Amino acid sequence: MSHKTRLFSLLIVVLFVGFVFGLAAEEPKYGGELIAGISADPVGFDPHKTSAYSSFEVLENVYNTLVTVGDDLTPQPAIAKSWEVSEDGLTWTFHIREGIKFHNGRTLVAGDIEYSLERIMDPDTGSGAAWRLATVENISAPDDDTVVIALQNPYPGLLTKVGGYKGMAIVAKENVESGKINTHPVGTGPFEFVEHVPGDRVVLSKNEEYWEEELPYLDGINFRVIPDETVRKTSLLTGEVHWIDSVPSQEIEQLKKRDNVVLGESSGTAYWYAAFNLDHEPFGDRRVRKAIAMSINRSEIAAAAKWDAAVANDSPVPEASYWSTDYHPYLGEQNHDKAEELLTEAGYPNGFNAGVMVSTQYPGTVRAAQVMQAQVARIGVNLKIRTLEWGTWLEEQSAGNFDIYINGWIGNLDPDDYFYAQHYTGEVFNFTGYSNEELDELLDEGRMEPVKEKRYELYSEIQKTLIDDAPYVYIYIPKVVHAWRPIVKGYTTRPDEALKFKATWIAS
Fold it and tell me: How confident is the model at residue 2 (pLDDT cuts 50, 70, 90)?
């Protein structure tokens, strides 16, 4: 063997050993507590009642649903190991996995699914997830291993409805009846609830009897409540926390250059918007709403709110989605002359005063409101910005104590998710008070239509109707951005913003 050949062989061996060592070094390891910085304190832990994203950041790891959605947002088995649908599409039969235990040690049975879904449907529960089961006629558990869901009409989106959101969590009846579910939830998920110190932290511990073949790697998760985005970022950079749920948008590019931070980005499925209270004058008049819709510059608002981490849109559906349309009447230049003409027709030739409600939990909404305030002032609309702490914001929204609010809607998988809950007459999340009988009929049809192309036609008409009626002014589609220390492994930033830490581990 020549000298060069020996050197080459040695190099191959070294590279191979290095490769194998590298693989070994990246093998997941058990142990350690993840310290996660979150933007806001959870507002209750009853998954069937809370609507706060800060609560679901925690509950995503405490509960399971009947089925789930993978990183590619397609339905996958979870509590149900398999299912089948009748030929007429009206009966779904789910086969329940054996050996799943609640955190209190009791074995889960099909009756728990029946109880949980019926609790969501019960008007007395006041669940914000009830709309997801609006097509359900009956739920039964003929034995401990089988759940049957009978529908009033065929609904092709049922799997994403029962599995795409932890508001559909399977709960323990005894946890509900004890009155403790809102303060000490008991689920079947990879982590168990330990404690909540309001304004400070939520602590979870590893579920040692988790039903999946692979147990969680982490010993636990410590969610630290850090409302200030600068403090949250600094805590990550100093190593005080391992992971944070958002970073200041203006610093994304700078953080990408750091070797002590990993940035996870995903194109989002959420939309952010300004909503009008149609019971407050003058917003019951469509001309007023349209005047505002055509007088704002969405690109400027998106840039102020999220810098490069958002795309301006006058529709709730992202351009990359199959359900997107080419109807975009407000993405061109602002039309102040037409806006003023509409206000004059509506009886407001000199404009009017109104309030816009935003929250400190989402600093981007504050910046968005400031830009919007300056833009609509040009047509005589004087907005007063009301900035509230998140819990108070939610209370005011629910009570209808607002003229306009700015917020986002997340977790959109099926096209129905974008529209039904916030626009159907009388639905619990329809805080604007919008009611349109023709739109309701279209939404009902869209839910039932099994043919994708026909559904597309229906949802295109739905989008056009809402954009023209303008109970919402859609503004932008944000990216999902999380950040973590390099020692955090196995975490994926998802388009649906679900925080799943089951596969996450900490390298030494």
Answer: very low
Q: Tell me which DSSP letter residue 129 carries.
A: T
**Residue closest to 264 by CA, chosen among 280, 247, 284, 283:** 247
How many Cβ atoms from other residues are within 10 Å of residue 179's Cβ?
9
Nearest to 388 by CA among 352, 363, 354: 363
Q: Supply the pLDDT for residue 333.
A: 83
The closest alpha carbon to 186, from 198, 196, 173, belongs to 173
Are residue 86 and residue 212 in the same domain, yes or no? no
Work out the mean pLDDT of the chain and round it to a whole number: 92
What CATH number should be reported for the domain holding residue 253? 3.40.190.10
Type of residue found at 124: D
Instruction: Tell me the pLDDT tens digit for each residue of 103-115.
Output: 999 999 999 999 9
Residue 412 lies in a domain: yes
Same domain, 159 and 208: no
Q: In this predicted structure, which of 9-13, 248-252, 282-286 has the lowest mean pLDDT? A: 9-13
Task: Note whether 351 and 213 are same-domain residues.
Answer: no
- Summarize the confidence of residues 152-172 as an average pLDDT: 93
CB-based contact 47:193 (threshold 8 Å): no
Cα separation, 109 vs 98, whole angstroms: 8
Mark which of 177, 200, 225 sits at the end of a domain.
177
Q: Tokens at residue 326, please?
A: 């080419």
DSSP 283: T
Q: What is the predicted pLDDT for the residue at 267?
A: 84
Query: If DSSP codes are grouped into helix, strand and coil, which group holds residue 419?
Result: helix
Domain encompassing residue 224? 189-261+485-506
Q: Angle, to 10 degrees, between the axis of helix 452-469 and the axis of helix 437-448?
A: 160
C-alpha triplet 236, 238, 241: angle, nearest 5°: 40
Question: What helix, strand, coil percent values describe the chain, rounded to 5?
Answer: 35, 25, 45
Token pair of 477 as six digits: 């589609």
Does residue 358 register a pLDDT over 60? yes
pLDDT tens digits, one per residue of 471-496: 999 999 999 999 999 999 999 999 88
**443 in a structural domain:** yes
The pTM of the full predicted model, rounded to 2 decimals, is 0.82
Q: What is the domain-level CATH number for residue 376? A: 3.10.105.10
Q: Rounded to whole angstroms, how far apart are CA atoms 381 and 379?
A: 6
In a domain, 70, yes or no: yes
- Give the pLDDT score at 117: 98
Name which of 165, 156, 155, 163 is nearest 75 in CA terms: 163
Q: Residue 339 and residue 290: Cα distance in Å, rounded?
A: 7
| Confidence bin at 428 (pLDDT 50/70/90) | confident
Residues 97 and 211 in one domain: no
